[in-house]
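Exercise 7.
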Amino acid sequence: MKSTTGFRLSSGPEPHRIRTKLILKAHPDVRSLIGKNPGTFWVILGIVSLQILIAYLVRHQPWWVMLLAAYLAGAFANHALFVMIHECAHNLLFKKRSLNTLSGILANLPQIFPSSVSFQRYHIKHHSFQGNHDLDADLPDYWEARLVKNSFFGKVLWFLLYPVFQAARTFRLKEIRPVDKWVVLNWAVQMAFNVGIWLVFGPKAFFYLLLSFFFSVGLHPLGARWIQEHYLVLDEHQETYSYYGVLNKVAFNVGYHNEHHDFPSVPWNKLPQLKQKAPDYYNNLLYHTSWTKLFFRFLFDRKLSLFSRMIRNNRGKVALTDESKPDQELITTA
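Solution. The predicted structure, written as tokens, is:
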């Protein structure tokens, strides 16, 4: 029975460091996949240009046309830019860290809200301390999960306002410096871009980009990506899931989430090869095949809630132990 009142507590370490060591031992040739992909920069430039072009084209269209364009096209483009920011956060484009950060700021432009630099800080913590509520901003807050509960309307509201909830989580992480010169640069560039879009193209172009942002992470089948990655939908003991559906083609393989957590230094274009090189470690894991199906299941299944996540109290230390039968119990208090 999946819990709707408390996170599931694991007494073992997160599984990815363990599996990484085992895969490297069994398949040392996977090291050849680790590296940079500077071609990602041109992908970023292309998608940013596409979003600006569509914003220009809808600037004089009826509001309903702008809305449809944001839902049917802008959401996919904006989601792809999230994946590009994710690549920049892992420094998977260039050797110089600053060039990756600047590329992330570029990818951030059509998203209206300056977040690429801050995302990098919080996301790396997610990889280092998966499941630790004090360090992993990917985990919902206790108040957030209690507010949404397992109701259909609560989940709809959560999807609709997902960026707001995500931003609120960062306040509980005390070990990250919230502001530095890169964050200030991110904000300054983004504000200048936003003002430029409004003044040059007009309000409809601005709202096209704004709605594209909210649809790309929220009340849209693409929003199921956040459920796919770590929610205990298919099994109560497997805390990370991949997605092997057709939308990986326009989402730049972001669905290969187990593979990414095991080898975060492998760029997006080589993640399918990683799965192929280590089939004995990935073919036995449960996975999702449809974000759309998952989106509606999460909305309507009252057994699923924001508490359908694994949580742990350690700080992510590695222990090469057998996790096939970890001790589990429910944790219901903050």
